[in-house]
Amino acid sequence: MALPRGQARGWVKAAKLAQRRRPAEDTGGPQSPAPGSQRAALYVHWPYCEKRCSYCNFNKYIPRGVDEAALRRCLVTEAQTLLRLSGVRRVESVFFGGGTPSLASPQTVAAVLEAVAQAAHLPADSEVTLEANPTSASGSRLAAFGAAGVNRLSIGLQSLDDTELQLLGRTHSASDALQTLAEAQRLFPGRVSVDLMLGLPAQQVGPWLRQLQDLLRCCDDHVSLYQLSLERGTALFTQVQKGALPAPDPELAAEMYQEGRAVLREAGFRQYEVSNFARNGALSTHNWTYWQCGQYLGVGPGAHGRFIPQGAGGHTREARIQTLEPDNWMKEVTLFGHGTRRRIPLSELELLEEVLVMGLRTDVGITHQHWQQFEPQLTLWDLFGASKEVKGLQEQGLLLLDHRGLRCSWEGLAVLDSLLLSLLSRLQEAWQQKTPSSVPRG
Ligand code: SF4
User: Fold this and answer.
1) What's the domain of life for this entry (predicted)?
2) Could you list the pLDDT tens digit for every one of the 442 residues in the chain?
3) Ligand 1 mutation target, pool 45, 62, 100, 236, most atoms within 8 A of CB
4) What's the distance, CA 442 to chain centroid?
């Protein structure tokens, strides 16, 4: 569907004028869409990549004769449909992920943003992020994405070592990555994030830390550290299975993570989430919505969303998953206006489990106020105040429960998964004990 050009230019122009970072509190985060509000974040999935990286099991395809105009129409249609079905009136942030969305044309990005700005309120200073791979992100392309409304870049740099990049099957070299990073910072100052991987086969702590130090000399205000996860069905998994490569050593990876986060802290970065570090308030608004269990819409093949559909009683949040394969997804969008393959209503307990698991990933954790938005009857004190296990975790200095809420300490954040086991079972136990007579539902 063609969209009126005047309005599109209007939004992009306003967005350009408003290109300033929304300041985040030193110890807090950006505001997230409240659980049942008419506000949401929007994720857009671009499903294609130039080639398959050796470790990747994401939903991505190698393009063969992609009809981008048709794909664009479907992305626009699905965004409009999901905005209507969710009753969302205000979109707080947009994230183009993939796949490799920097392979899409800037026109496609602009068309989706235009459609969103027409169907809902998209504030001019909304965070609009695009994931970019160095080989598909020349300076002129990045500038064109900026002109289309993108104001933040997340660069899949992964490593600054050419041998490691080859092992990962990346299409770029370390020098390509550094060049893209420099261009990105020139065009989007203060709004460029880089991903760095750790825990690769044969990777050693010292050389990896030197990569991180090198990166810190030239990076912007946001860094994400990801541990390689060896996924069945990937080329890397097969190589390790056959003995052609050593298996990644989890102890070395843990050491890299611990040393890496200390180096980042020393460099003035706040670890605001398990894998994410920011300085000068450059937290990702979009991802903050996920960790705070705000509503989000997922558009595109295989995209995930979480929202309360209108007309279904108006209070049950659903997990929605779009059809994975792009051609099938396009057929469904053409026929039905959206390609939702699965709708999974979330029970109250499941939602609370998500609030706990996602919230504790952040340094702010779960404030009493935040928890109350999801569960007004059982407070965090009711749930965890008398638990011996929680007391034990507090005594070990891993967890804090106080007037602010429940959160991990610096040490606790590094071992979050082990803490969650106790916390989730305590929540489930308390939920089973909660009866309609003892705790009246609103
Ligand atoms: S570019 Fe990203 S999505 Fe594409 S194959 Fe590589 S890791 Fe996977």
Assistant:
1) Eukaryota
2) 333 344 445 677 777 777 654 445 456 778 776 666 799 999 999 999 999 999 999 999 998 889 999 999 999 999 999 999 999 999 999 999 999 999 999 999 999 999 999 999 999 999 999 999 998 788 899 999 999 999 999 999 999 999 999 999 999 999 999 999 999 999 999 999 999 999 999 999 999 999 999 999 999 999 999 999 999 999 999 999 999 999 999 999 999 999 999 999 999 999 999 999 999 999 999 999 999 999 999 999 999 999 999 875 667 899 999 999 999 999 999 999 999 999 999 999 999 999 999 999 999 999 999 999 999 999 999 999 999 999 999 999 999 999 999 999 999 999 999 999 999 999 999 999 885 544 444 3
3) 100
4) 32
Strand partners, 367: 405
- Token code pair at residue 409: 């300490």
The residue length of the chain stands at 442
Residue nearest to atom 6 of ligand 1 (CA): 53
From 45, 51, 60, mutation site for ligand 1 pocket: most ligand atoms within 8 A of C-beta: 60
Q: What is the rounded distance in angstroms from the CA atom of residue 401 to the CA atom of residue 281?
A: 25
Mutate to test the pocket of ligand 1, among 46, 48, 51, 56 (most ligand atoms within 8 A of CB): 56
Tracing tokens 């999974």 back to the chain, one arrives at 344
CA of 51 to the centre of ligand 1 (A): 8
DSSP designation for 103: G
> Is the bond leading into 442 cis (omega within 30 degrees of zero)?
no
